[in-house]
Every structure is written in C-alpha cells, then in structure tokens.
User: What shape does this take?
Amino acid sequence: MHVLIVLAHPEQKSFNSYLAQQARATWLEQGHEVTVLDLYAERFDPREGDWHYCDRQDAQRFDAMREQRHHWNQQSLPAEIERHIDLLLQADALIVQFPFWWFGAPAILKGWMDRVFVYGGLYQSQHRHEHGVMRGKKALVVSTAGASEQACAPDGRDGDMRLLLWPILHSLHYVGFDVLEPYLIHGVRGGLAPEAERKQQKYLEQRTLDYQARLTRWAQWPSIPFNQEQDFIDGQSLRPGAPTYSPFVRHIP
Assistant: This one.
C-alpha cells in the first residue's frame, strides 16, 4: 500500500510534524510505501490565480474551473500541481495532518485543495461523491487543538470540533475518498509552566502511541457515513425518509 501524508504546519519541530513522522515510521514498519508532502517546507502557493496558467483558454477573464479543466486536458498544469495530483492518484491512503486554527485548517491546506483538486481531473459532474475519482481509497484527517476536549465538545464554549471539520471531510468525500472518523488531539499548547509541560508531554506521548496502534489496525478504522445518490431527488434535494448523518444535510421541517 502507498500512503500519502499531507502536512500543513509551518514549524518542523511542532507536534504536528512529529505526528506525521511517527505515522510515516509506523507505515514503513508494516512494509508500506510512504510519502510525506510538507506544504510549508515546499513553500506551496495556496493562492489560485491566472499567473499559474501558461496557456489561458480565456485571456480576458479568469475562470478557475474553466482553466483547470483546460490545462488538465492539455496536460499543462503547473509542475507542482501535476506532481501532487500524481501522488494522490498513486496513493491508497491519504492522511491530512494540521493544527486547528481559527475553527478550521490553516489557509495553506484550503489553498492546496483549491489548486490540486482540479476540475475536470479530480472531479466533475459524473465523477464525485461515491462515484469520485478517489473511490476505493481511504482518507484520514488528524488535527490538534489548543483548547481542551470539553471546550471542543458539542456543548463546549468553542463549539463541536468534529462538526467544524465537516467542510474538509465532505470535500474529501466529494472527490471520492472513503473518509474515516478524524483523529483529534486537544490541549496541545505552548508556553506552559514546567509541571504543566511535563504533564502535557506525558499525555501527548500516550496519544501518539494510541495513534500509531490504531494505524496498525487501519482496516478497522470506522468510516464516516454520507448520503448516497439514491437519497436525493434529482441529485439535489434530500428524499423524504432518507437517513441523515450531519446537520449540514438534513430534512427541513
């Protein structure tokens, strides 16, 4: 199996970077191939824009979807985008590793999805959701938060972290991934007093070991349920009586 780990943290000595390397080591010990894609280390440009495209289909007005499809068809996407797409297509499993900043992922990760999940290549009207290009592949989101687990709970002051991650989880599902339940670690903070820092270090070591152990049982990791094509009328409106799995896709009273 080939595993792709996409890391979005600016500090290579961070706990997120450490987790990515521990995941890499765990997969390698099991005999798998692993690639770590460090977006900050590569100085990835998250901004989608006309300057990335050398052979514009419309030189007067920039339409991101139109230019992505055109350059995909012409095989003239930027070299780094082609490389990242190739890594995705080669991978059997994807791990997306990032810190939870301002109730979401760092901008560089959102921009990576904007630019790499190209229209016409990784998705189009006939190839999305359960029919997506990435069907048959699994994706896992691993994220850390500075707030406590209770603060990030459904009744917590900061809101339900699992729910706030839905846009990223749904985006992975949109291109066809079987999306696994995210692995979340709370209370990852700096600037602590010595005793608090020792306590946190022990906690993080335990969570790291738990994470590695769960990776060795990859086939048993639970998936997130999403509505399927048959749950919608004309592919748009939730059919009466269809199941619901998220407040983002629900029946209107």
Residues 2-219 form a domain with the Rossmann fold fold (CATH 3.40.50.360). The chain has seven helices and eight strands.
